[in-house]
Amino acid sequence: ERLALERARLERRDEGLGASARPLALSASLASREPLALLAPQAEKLPPLRLDARASVAGLCDALECDLVLAPWANAPSFDLTLRVRGLHGEPLLEHLPSLAGKLHGRELQSGEFDLHVDGEFGLSRRGPLGIDWAAGIKGTVELDRCEFRAQSGGEVLAGLQRARAEIARLDPQRGELQLKSLELSTPRLRAARDAEGLHLLGLVIALPPPSTAPSGSAPAVAQEPAPASAASTPPADTDFAIARLDLDGIDVEVVDRTCPEPVLVPLKKLDFELRKFSTRSLARGGSVQFQAV
């Protein structure tokens, strides 16, 4: 049978904001496009799960749509995820974050939009139809071909990524190990500006601290020695995030400084960057990485 969870509503009210404050009201639903088949003698032949999730948060997000195609029992498990967010509003969000008053405002985020599409395929060893041999690790590829954020409906893309592809050599959740054979990023995009109000980023305005006004005759500040890292904060020896090769192809960044008598535009339109042999485990032991930028 098809899965159909009717629209549910959840409210959260913060009494510390006063009786007149609007509650956070979440509405959500989940449905399958086709009848669900989860178990079979030959589970690898089961059709993919096709799920549609819908949600909204009154005043903050008009609509969130998530379409997921999932093939967990296939010989090569795969997924395909499309995410669409519409009607993001900044000012109502800050009503629920009074600690940020005076530090951040979101009046430029009106009917914001976010779009994402990503898919992937994995190779793994199974222990029966439902079990996974985690010790053998997981391999696979994940590709992203759309990631865009707009502060206004149909407006300029303020942040995004044209394309990304990751080839996973080994993923071992039990040991906290992720090794990428390659990571390719194509044309990250960012728009930002600075003026007297602060830093304009993603439809938000972040207040910047005023410049230092220490008297000219005052004694210079003395740097404090950092406290030694405790054993509890040191990651386990086996934990590792490694990238054999990272390639960044192109860039589309524009930063405008309006605090000057004449606005200054700083464009970054071309960048080729390559990183090799990156490993958090190696760096923790004093190792090095290789990189090249053009």
Describe this structure as you would to a colleague.
The protein is mainly beta and 294 residues long. 4% of the residues lie in helices and 52% in strands. The protein has 2 helices and 19 strands. The protein has helices spanning 90-95, 280-284, and strands at residues 4-12, 24-32, 49-57, 61-71, 78-88, 104-105, 112-123, 126-127, 131-132, 138-150, 157-172, 177-194, 199-201, 204-206, 240-249, 252-257, 264-268, 272-279, 290-293. The strands form 2 sheets. The chain has a 17-stranded mixed β-sheet that branches. A hairpin with a 6-residue loop joins strand 10 and strand 11 (157-172).
Shape: globular
Q: What's the gyration radius in Å?
A: 24 Å
- Could you spell the SSE succession in H and E letters? EEEEEHEEEEEEEEEEEEEHE
* Biggest sheet features: 17 strands, mixed
Q: How much strand content do the residues show?
A: over 45%
Residue share in helices?
under 10%
Low-confidence stretches: none
Describe the structure using short key phrases.
19 strands, 2 helices, two-stranded antiparallel ribbon, 4% helix, mainly beta, 17-stranded mixed β-sheet, 294 residues, single chain
Topology:
Layout: E1 4-12, E2 24-32, E3 49-57, E4 61-71, E5 78-88, H1 90-95, E6 104-105, E7 112-123, E8 126-127, E9 131-132, E10 138-150, E11 157-172, E12 177-194, E13 199-201, E14 204-206, E15 240-249, E16 252-257, E17 264-268, E18 272-279, H2 280-284, E19 290-293
Parallel strand pairs: 12-15, 12-16
Antiparallel strand pairs: 1-2, 2-3, 3-4, 4-5, 5-7, 6-14, 7-10, 8-9, 10-11, 11-12, 12-13, 13-14, 15-18, 16-17, 18-19
